[in-house]
Amino acid sequence: MNIKALNREERKAFLVSLGEPAYREKQLFQWISRGVDRIEEMTDLPGALREKLRDSCSFESLVIAAEQISSADGTRKFLLTLPDGNTIESVFMKYEYGNTLCLSTQVGCAMGCSFCASAIGGKVRNLKAWEMLDQFLVCQKRAEAPVNHIVLMGMGEPFDNYAEVSQFLRTIHDPDGVGLSYRNMTVSTCGLIPKIRQFGIDFPQVNLAISLHASSQREREQRMPVAKAWPMQELMKVCREYTEQTGRRITFEYALIEGKNDDPGEARRLAELLRGMLCHVNLIPLNPVAEIGMQGSSRSRAARFARVLEDRGIPVSIRRQLGSDIAAACGQLRRNNS
Ligand code: SAH
């Protein structure tokens, strides 16, 4: 039995069943949240308890199976092995405002976006909340740098795993543990409408990013099958409601694909779609994926696209491409190792 896989209540009950006082759980949770998984290091636990734990449970962690470090900017990409042998990816990035970890929420993904490497093998399974926390802890330890921002933009669709993702956000926020502020977390979704509504109620302080990648329903449903189930018009309505209810800005992610969605006409339609909304557009020249055969837009096309939005008063940035000398698009390291 892996004691890290229990939530705090369950762990408390387990300790009580071993004849221990409930407050021992807090001590254990603090050790786990520091990434300590050797019982010998848990020095404030009495010897008898450490003995009992050794006999009755494990502290198994995710294991780093491969790592790539960008010589250009220090971006580090990790391939992690889960206890059942499946693998996921995480990325450590340095930004002006601090160190960020990009975390996975599923093994593979069911959403089937045409430009995404994680979609290629479909969804294998959801990650458990504890696996997401461990992903954070293991990568932070290896990077030897404090991480103060997480983005759920790795493999998987967070809102297709809402219950475990919610539990993870609460656990990493827990002041007894990592204590990460909700404002320093970002969840990215391809647009599962009911969950966007729920998220606005459950986590109004966590940043929300929406993957848009098109300015019309027809274009979007070709690129993102999820748009057939959750049409764009309704998505935009829910986004406006979200910003009004929470007072929080939404980030719209828009991957620029050379010759497909990057001409000024698309930019004008996008500006029209977002007019008056509390939002920000993040333009990301597509990371090329070998199997897919689409190219990211050139710098000049990206700049022209951004200018059209700017001229219409839509806040926009072109994301700096980090780790371009390593396989940085989600899912590529995993595919290269399978
Ligand atoms: N499923 C979630 C989060 C994971 S992907 C979502 O769809 O938002 C994080 C972001 O990377 C999304 O905006 C996704 O569309 C984008 N993305 C996927 N493949 C990409 C690629 N090859 N190049 C650039 N961005 C990509």
Molecular structure report:
The protein is 36% helix and 19% strand. By secondary structure, it is of the alpha/beta class. Helix 1 (8-17) crosses helix 2, helix 6 (193-202) runs parallel beside helix 9 and helix 10 runs parallel beside helix 11 (299-311). The protein is built from 12 helices and 12 strands. It has 2 domains: 3-56, DNA polymerase, domain 1; 63-326, TIM Barrel (Alpha-Beta Barrel), CATH 3.20.20. The radius of gyration is 21 Å and the shape is elongated. The protein binds S-adenosyl-L-homocysteine. S-adenosyl-L-homocysteine is lined by residues 111, 113, 115-116, 153, 157, 188-190, 211, 253, 255, 284, 286-287, 289, 329-330.
In short:
The chain has helices at residues 8-17, 24-33, 47-56, 129-143, 162-173, 193-202, 217-223, 226-229, 232-246, 264-274, 299-311, 332-336, and strands at residues 63-69, 76-81, 87-95, 98-102, 106-108, 123-126, 149-152, 185-189, 207-211, 250-256, 279-285, 316-318. It is α/β, with parallel strands linked by helices. The site of S-adenosyl-L-homocysteine has 18 residues, from strand 8 and strand 10.
